[in-house]
Design brief:
globular, Aspartate Aminotransferase, domain 2, 2 domains, alpha/beta, 13 strands, Aspartate Aminotransferase, domain 1, about 375 residues
């Protein structure tokens, strides 16, 4: 710990991203990247933009990109905010809509105890009080638990790392409750393209809903860093005020060109994401056939736990191999997955959906690992 750090830096615990190996020896199923390449139109747009215009600043309003998003969703461009990935937008949203400690401090904001682990980081960074709400035993979110005075609510739909979706009726019910408190509901729709219902069509009915989106997952552009938020004009203006107090040029020219092309090529992405969903369902069925617990997923990943021990075990809910040990065993076989060493989920692994060939290798590795455990008893 450095003597030059201020108290804010000393007291935060930064987010830890998934491993990004520098070699190609691994099947990489640990960071929820799309296994298929970006649209050829994206590559072409970036290539055409890589010219002398790079000497000029990009459009700070990201007009063309925002208009493309607005056209795709049937909203006004004034209801769209563009950012350097959804993480940046979420950070801006925490700063814009949730009160920090101090004379204007409100009730704590709420988010699930099992959810995207960047949320507490943002809260600590901006000194925002928060309270985590336990998920149910089946890892679903009980909306009734959030209908209590708070500083606002944020959660992903579907939730991460579980992949469990939330119904739109629940989202709207909570939005109506929070509207009476003049509080914002942030719905992080990073994975919505893989099976969840988007709240975007209803932002005009519920003016306190801000939906946040990324191009990293459904648009195969994790390496480009593009994202957007959709909400009423007041919410978008709030995000702009934070951005322009930080950096007015958060999205570069190449990213804007690629992001715009991606948003306008829905046909291409609908097809590759349909393939991801089909592979996810096949993998889920196979793993359950092997005895794994697999949560119902509406994302491009599955959340899994190894088969329980045999009936001779005193604890009949204990898996035959821990999440950490299963992750290590898979790594030995050249497969990277994600493990979260937290209460309730320590025995689970989050497994991104790769190509069919990659997932066949993963399923074979799981069968071999579990089979070897059985042979040693």
């Amino acid at each position: 710990m450095s003597k030059y750090w201020n108290n804010r830096v000393k007291n935060i615990t930064p987010y830890v991203p998934g491993e990004q190996p520098r070699d190609r020896k691994f099947i990489k199923l640990n960071t929820n990247e799309n296994p298929y390449p970006p649209s050829p139109k994206v590559i072409k747009a970036i290539q055409e933009t890589a010219n002398e215009s790079l000497r000029l600043y990009p459009d700070p309003q990201c007009t063309e990109f925002r208009e493309a998003v607005a056209g795709r969703y049937g909203v006004k461009s004034e209801q769209v905010f563009a950012g350097n990935g959804s993480d940046e937008i979420l950070a801006f949203a925490f700063a814009a809509f949730f009160e920090s400690s101090g004379p204007n401090r409100s009730e704590p904001i709420l988010f699930p105890d099992i959810t995207y682990s960047f949320y507490p980081v943002y809260a600590d960074l901006w000194d925002i009080p928060y309270r985590t709400v336990p998920v149910r035993e089946d890892f679903s979110i009980n909306i009734a638990d959030y209908k209590t005075p708070s500083g606002g609510v944020v959660f992903p739909n579907p939730n991460a790392p579980t992949g469990v979706p939330i119904s739109l009726n629940d989202v709207f019910s909570l939005a109506e409750y929070l509207e009476k408190l003049d509080k914002v509901l942030i719905v992080d729709e990073a994975y919505a393209a893989f099976g969840a219902e988007s709240a975007v069509p209803f932002i005009n009915k519920h003016g306190n809903i801000l939906t946040v989106h990324t191009l990293s997952k459904s648009a195969s552009l994790a390496g480009l860093r593009g994202g957007y938020a959709i909400g009423n004009g007041e919410l978008i203006e709030g995000l702009c005020r934070v951005r322009d107090s930080f950096n007015s040029y958060t999205v570069d020219r190449l990213a804007l060109a690629g992001a715009t092309a991606a948003v306008t090529d829905a046909a291409y992405y609908n097809e590759i994401n349909r393939r991801v969903i089909a592979t996810r369902e096949r993998v889920t069925k196979n793993l359950r056939g092997q005895g794994f617990t697999v949560l119902p997923s509406a994302a491009n990943f599955v959340f899994v736990k190894a088969p329980i021990k045999t009936k001779t075990s005193v604890d009949k809910t204990e898996p035959c191999i821990s999440g950490a040990d299963l992750m290590a065993a898979l790594r030995e076989k050249g497969i990277l997955v994600r493990h979260f060493n937290k209460n309730k989920v320590a025995d689970y692994l989050r497994v991104s959906i790769g190509t069919d060939e990659e997932m066949d290798a993963f399923l074979a590795a799981c069968a071999a690992i579990i089979g070897n455990i059985g042979n040693t008893k």
